[in-house]
C-alpha cells in the first residue's frame, strides 16, 4: 500500500528566502508525482506534474525533482513571497488512476 | 472559466438527513474523481467514474455512500443518513482521458457539516 509523507508539516520563512519542501513515498512503482497548492477554503491548484521517466520539472520560481529509486521528491521555491503562503500537497499516481496524497506542508512566508 | 464546478460550496445537514454533492467536470472531460479530506488529514480517494460507469469505487465506504455520473448532467455524490463523522471537505476532480499521466484538475470542494 502506497504511503506518502511530507516533511515538515509546517514551515515559516521570511520573504525572499529559498526553500525546499520534501515528499517521500513507500512504493517506487509510480506513474507520476504531482505537486498541488491549496489555499484555505479553496480547492487544489496543480503546480507541477513529473512523469516517472523524468527527473525534474520547472515552472517559474518552482522546481520539482523526482528520485523514484529512493522514493523522494522535493519542491524548491525560489525567492519566496507572501503570496506563496499556502498548503503544498504532494500526490503520487500509481498503477490506477487514483492519487495518493500526503498530508501537506503548510507554508507561511512573512513580509 | 470552464474549470471544475462543485456545488454547493457549503452544506449543513442534521444527522440522518441525506447530502447530495454535485460536480460538473471541465469542458471536454469525461473522467471524474471524488476525494474526501477529513480535518487534519490528507485527501483520500473515494471513487472514479466515467460517463454512466463506475470504474473504481475502492475508496467508498460500503454503506450510505453512492456516486453516479449520468450521460447528461453533473456527477453526484450521495450520502444517506449522514453522521457527524461524514463532516469533511469533498473534492471533485476531472481529467480528459484515462492516461495515467494526465493531470487532475480539482474543484473548490463542498464542505459538509453534520450537526
What order do the helices and strands come in, and which of them pair?
The complex is a heterodimer of chains A (111) and B (115).
Chain A: E1 4-7, E2 10-14, E3 19-25, E4 32-38, E5 44-51, E6 56-59, E7 62-67, E8 72-77, E9 86-93, E10 99-101, E11 105-110
Parallel strand pairs in A: 2-11
Antiparallel strand pairs in A: 1-3, 3-8, 4-5, 4-9, 6-7, 7-8, 9-10, 9-11
Chain B: E1 5-7, E2 10-13, E3 19-24, E4 31-37, E5 43-50, E6 53-56, E7 65-68, E8 75-79, E9 88-95, E10 105-106, E11 110-114
Parallel strand pairs in B: 2-11
Antiparallel strand pairs in B: 1-3, 3-8, 4-5, 4-9, 5-6, 7-8, 9-10, 9-11
Structure characterization notes:
The complex is a heterodimer of chains A (111) and B (115). By secondary structure, chain A is an all-beta fold. Chain A has strands spanning 4-7, 10-14, 19-25, 32-38, 44-51, 56-59, 62-67, 72-77, 86-93, 99-101, 105-110. Chain A is built from no helices and eleven strands. In chain A, strands 2, 4, 5, 9, 10 and 11 form a six-stranded mixed β-sheet that branches. A five-stranded antiparallel β-sheet of chain A has the order 1-3-8-7-6, with no helix packed on it. In chain A, strand 7 (62-67) and strand 8 form a beta hairpin. The model of chain A has no long low-confidence stretch (mean pLDDT 93). Chain B has strands at residues 5-7, 10-13, 19-24, 31-37, 43-50, 53-56, 65-68, 75-79, 88-95, 105-106, 110-114. In chain B, the strands form two sheets. In chain B, strands 2, 4, 5, 6, 9, 10 and 11 form a seven-stranded mixed β-sheet that branches. In chain B, strands 1-3-8-7 form a four-stranded antiparallel β-sheet, with no helix packed on it. Classes of the chains: A mainly beta (111), B mainly beta (115). Chains A and B meet through strand 4, strand 5, strand 9 and strand 10 of A and strand 4, strand 5, strand 9 and strand 10 of B.
